[in-house]
Specification:
heterodimer, A: alpha/beta, Pyruvate Kinase, Chain: A, domain 1, 5-stranded mixed beta sheet, 5 helices, elongated, B: ATP Synthase, domain 1, 5-stranded mixed beta barrel, about 70% strand
């Protein structure tokens, strides 16, 4: 019986230590969400302004440019997956990876080749474990994304996009990331970056309305050439920031429920330990009483 | 009198926004001045100073590099990878 009690006490202690760790992690992510959220908000105006400019060009001008026209046949598509470097975030990485493989399957179904670009150690491990190929990887900076990384990713993607498909270039770029909706909700999102799909922020001009004639300085081609990489970068940076904020929120949620579970375990085991102790005492008393009786009757 | 709605944003924050009478910026082919009622334009910025004359006639100066100037319906947006007030 004594052994039983010792086992319960051990389990209580173990649950207590685990709880300390999960509680600390919960508090850490809670404090980081704020900052991550502020960064998402701060990068908002830039990416909105860029998207607006791109949309304006796409809506109001009929220029033949790689940015605004859709190729007749899409041979190869790139998927950029934004995961996190660390786990312990509930379904965060699973969601985004599942969404990405669904997208890849869909693109395969349309007869397109798919190349993957991975951001975050979790996605890299997922691919390595399944021995899948990836074009390029970025790890180590998902908690606090740097604009430099976004620029690097953007440059790599734009270079691929400009390359003709026959030489290994891509005709389509998709990104998959977790969007931060609120502290409780993070939604995996798939967005096609190129060719431009959605015209955001601007209503299409009414048929009878005169379209404002856009002036371009210096030349329309040059402006669009310069706009393309900036647009990609800003979208990627925004996705990275969203993903970082979502990761912290997911970690906080996961760690909160882990701490709650630890609490419940501690209560349960304390009850069991009390039971065990009580029955041990009862047994000792009955042994003493029995022993005294035996001694008394032996006289 | 019509006014310009100006916002100057850099990659990670909004540098300045507000109403203005006039804006002067440097594009790759020279300086350009924008007054209310300007035709829509999209231009590449060259490294240099952006000067905004606000409603009270005060001049706000900002350094901008590597970005764009867009004007439509009296809304002027300066988007630059690096931008800061002087």
């Amino acid at each position: 019986m004594g052994a039983q009690l010792r086992v319960y006490r051990q389990k209580i202690r173990s649950a207590q230590t685990t709880k300390k760790i999960t509680r600390a992690m919960e508090l850490i992510s809670a404090s980081r969400i704020q900052k991550a959220q502020q960064r998402v908000a701060a990068s908002g105006p830039y990416s909105r302004a860029i998207t607006r400019a791109v949309s304006a060009v796409a809506t109001f001008s009929n220029v033949d440019h790689i940015l605004t026209t859709e190729p007749e046949k899409i041979e190869r598509a790139a998927i950029v997956i934004f995961s996190s470097d660390r786990g312990l975030a509930g379904a965060f990485n699973t969601n985004v990876l599942r969404e990405a493989s669904e997208l890849a399957a869909r693109l395969h179904g349309q007869g397109k080749d798919v190349v993957h670009y991975l951001v975050g150690r979790k996605a890299v491990n997922y691919f390595a474990f399944r021995k899948r190929q990836s074009e390029q990887i970025w790890t180590g900076g998902t908690d606090a994304p740097e604009f430099e990384t976004a620029k690097e990713i953007g440059d790599a993607l734009v270079a691929k996009f400009i390359q003709p498909a026959s030489e290994g270039g891509v005709d389509e770029i998709h990104i998959v990331y977790n969007r931060f909706v609120s502290m409780l909700v993070q939604v995996p999102e798939v967005v096609r970056l190129l060719p431009l799909e959605i015209v955001e922020g601007l209503e299409a001009p009414a048929a009878n309305e005169v379209m404002p004639a856009y002036e371009f300085e210096p030349e329309v081609g040059n402006v669009l050439d310069a706009l393309l990489p900036v647009y990609i970068e800003s979208r990627i940076f925004n996705a990275m920031l969203q993903s970082a904020a979502a990761k912290h929120a997911a970690t906080q949620k996961a760690m909160k429920s882990a701490s709650d579970n630890a609490d419940k375990l501690i209560t349960d085991y304390t009850r069991l330990a009390n039971n065990a102790r009580q029955s041990e005492i009862t047994q000792q008393i009955s042994e003493i009483v029995g022993g005294a009786d035996a001694l008394g009757s032996a006289k | 009198m019509a006014e310009l709605n100006v916002s100057v944003v850099s990659a990670d924050h909004e540098v300045w926004s507000g109403k203005a009478k006039q804006l002067i910026a440097r594009t790759t082919i020279g300086e350009i001045g924008i007054l209310p009622g300007h035709e829509p334009i999209l231009a590449i910025l060259a490294a240099g100073e952006v000067r905004v004359t606000d409603e009270n006639g005060e001049i706000i100066r900002a350094n901008a590099d590597d970005g764009f100037l867009s004007v439509e319906h009296d809304t002027v947006t300066i988007v630059a990878r690096h931008a800061e007030l002087v």
